[in-house]
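Moderator note: this is an archived Q&A kept for reference. The question asked for a predicted structure of one protein chain; the sequence and the answer are reproduced below.
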Amino acid sequence: MKGEAVDGDAVIAKLVEMGFKYSLAVEAVKMVGASINDAADYILNGPWSTNLGASTSSNCSKVCVKASGKRASSLSQPSEKMQQSNILDHFGTKMQTKRSKFNVAKDALDAGSKVSPVMEGNGNVHPDMHRDTKITSEIIAVDFPEVCLGADWEQQVSSLLRKHFGHASLKNFQREALAAWLSNQDCLVLAATGSGKSLRFQIPALLTGKVVVVIPPLISLMHDQCLKLAKHDVSACFLGSGQPDKSVEKKAMEGKYGLIYVCPESVLRLIKPLQSLAAGQGIALFAIDEVHCVLKWGHDFRPDYRKLSVLRENFSTFDIPLMALTATATNHVRKDIIQCLCMSKETKIVLTSFYHSNLRFSVKHSGTSLETYKKDCHVLIGDKQHLDRAEDSDNTSVPCGGFHGESPDLSQEVSGSFEMSDSPMELKERHGPTIIYVPTRKETLTIAKFLCGFSIKAKAYNAKRYMTCICRSRDNTCQKSYIRQVHEEFHEDKVEVVVATVAFGMGINKLNVRRIIHYGWPQSLEAYYQEAGRAGRDGKLADCILFANLARTPTLLPSRRSENQLKLAYKMLSDCHRYGMNTANCRARSLVEYFGEHFSHEKCYLCDVCIKGPPERLNVREEADIFMQVLAANKKPYALSWGNSGYIADSYDDDITHREVKRRRYVEKLYLKLLVSKIRKQYPIPKYMAIDMSWWQGLARVMESEGYIKEGDEKAHVQIKYFELTERGWDFVKSQREESLYITPEVDMLL
């Protein structure tokens, strides 16, 4: 018999270790018997051989993926590099050759040892078990072949797509990202939620037989992805604090899984085992999913994301490419990602459109407090009659953060619209699953409890210590079990509404989410659009509603930030605030253009601005003139420069005495309340006395956008705190022309 005649189960186990799928290994042993080489030859040359990722044709046009990493060196050649192994590394460079060729150290040959080794899946060298051999520790230098994918690699990928995922072919951006990987090039992928980002790091594992290490931010995401891959017959595991089976990590580091999902914190702990894995089975790719966490959460929620540069520092000799993936990132964020992860200057950036044509965006004014829940949740709960009947009901339970309370007066489930539903299925068909995002953990509980008072199946979800409080225990198992439970029940439509902090939903593969509600200001448009993109992944119409108190300036959530981080955080929150206050521009256009993409449509025809149309334009020439005249009067008769405590006066008149300069040295900063007070004092007519403070705030925002005024404070703010005229503003004040100044009023000018 050819090869090594051993027990069939042992052959199957060894083939699996070598990277072959279990089902193929069983089939091969059944067809050719218990011979490792014959079975492997059968698999590699069988009808499925195109799925294994290596072309055996010597005359085809090749795209060679160079095996990366350090070659194992003999004791006499310590500087020689060792390649990562792949499936073909277990055999010779030609398929007809049944045994690998080894260069045996001269002193071992002189000692008379006769060694004919075979390769195990972990890359270690072991002697043939059926030969009388003398083992030497100096048998090291191994001639590994390269993994060569033919020019028809796209056909091989298409075959894998059909077999595992049911897709006919690659999308253009998927093809572009895989081509970058084949060229051993770092790649930053920006693609809409639900577009198929995950396939771009799953395919390399199936194509090469090597391991792909995926780094997502959340346990729930890893768990969800592994469940999905299992259904598609792809071997995957996740590591970290959420993994109950402690043996999984050992198996993973031995190369038993094609994809390893591991959280950033665990990556830092597993550097040495991963280096061993790279030198043995081989690592085809490091994929960093939801990489926007580098900026958005990197300073508080996931600080270890910003430490992932260790991948480049510790695996540089293995030459493993990095692939970073996210749904949203501005030009600034892209630069920060590439710099933070030490990605190559030649990093390939792959973009898809940020436009979601099936999402209907709207912004609604709300106090976002317990008193306004009833009105704001009307679209979820039902008509006013049933709201009133259930108002005093407090028949709710809190089983580990889940609320399943029932209102005794309600005999049927509430539809979530303006009328009652006769069937639970009607609720699902008409409104579908909903995610409500709130800023704080406490609000997840209060809103979920409120909804359950109206027979809506709602659960609270947040990622940190509040679970400890509701579990009434410090038991981490309880917390993690509850988090997984909410994730799975929402996925299976057993829970209608999840009220969550930003931790929920990242990477979730749920197609039929019909509504994303933000109850309170998001901290950035990046966060908002990332979360909104989790709706309507099935391509059907879905709603993205932002409830916010439009009469108040939003504030940053508490966090430890450096001065630069604080400025950036205020800038991002300010952009989000401007989006909410806008009444003139299509919301889809505003969002797409925010990410630097040209919006090729006239408008979306879905959002509240497109449906209602912008409000009537106002001629604010008179109000703007008064506004800036008061600003200008605050700086006369001196030209003023900026000082730490106010305006420093520099006289136009050289004859002015030092005493007068000293007396007038400090000129107070003009903030909104003081400015409006001066306007009412200097122009005490009913028209200006009746104008609300928020109207002047809206006018100031418009004047800033038009370049007439600017922030007079060195510190960052969401909107102008201390007003100062620009050069254009001074020109406006000096001009005596009576030209009209028409603007589209913003939300706070209409409240």
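Archived answer notes: Residues 8-47 form one domain.
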